[in-house]
Amino acid sequence: xxxxxxxxxxxxxxxxxxxxxxxxxxxxxxxxxxxxxxxxxxxxxxxxxxxxxxxxxxxxxxxxxxxxxxxxxxxxxxxxxxxxxxxxxxxxxxxxxxxxxxxxxxxxxxxxxxxxxxxxxxxxxxxxxxxxxxxxxxxxxxxxxxxxxxxxxxxxxxxxxxxxxxxxxxxxxxxxxxxxxxxxxxxxxxxxxxxxxxxxxxxxxxxxxxxxxxxxxxxxxxxxxxxxxxxxxxxxxxxxxxxxxxxxxxxxx
Length: 253
Fold this sequence. Notes:
The chain is 50% helix and 17% strand. By secondary structure, it is an alpha+beta fold. It catalyses: ATP + protein L-histidine = ADP + protein N-phospho-L-histidine. This is histidine kinase.
């Protein structure tokens, strides 16, 4: 039975909230990591200076004490504000159960069409034949990841553009390949309708770091890792074909 409009709206709102939650978690993780490295260096150099500075120089000793105190305060803030905030999402909970791969495709694509693709006149095309494959994983999380991949493709497509979802399976893994012609300027074009948060869309226009995806796609990365799979984002280059690829292991035969 097709979902009612209210049910669909609630599900799309939940998908947006999950996307924002895991992007926040990713940003906090980066903040924690990127701040700890220089703090550790400052702390180490303070000990080097301590051995070089005259112990009877009260001013220098007070300066060193201030440096150490400042470092300790910053570390405490990271532990109290960043690390504790990430407790609930540090480990992605996966409720594994075997399910048919083919059954989830329409669910994800229909929600993207209703949420944004129709409003942007972006055509979603599914290219796959029935795989008959069974995935041993968290169906809801995988649907979320697939929805976000398609949503990102729509957000970064020009009006009247198109995106293609290619689904395939081998004996060992399932592959979801979303391809479209990149229009990065569309991400921040306020004349167009949007669903993802402005901050997320703006960050997604920045050059990709090696081996990393845009922050807004953190949920896809986490879902792939939790299932022992792989997620990859290709760069957004104006007018060129780009792709998001999610690979997941299949249930043993």
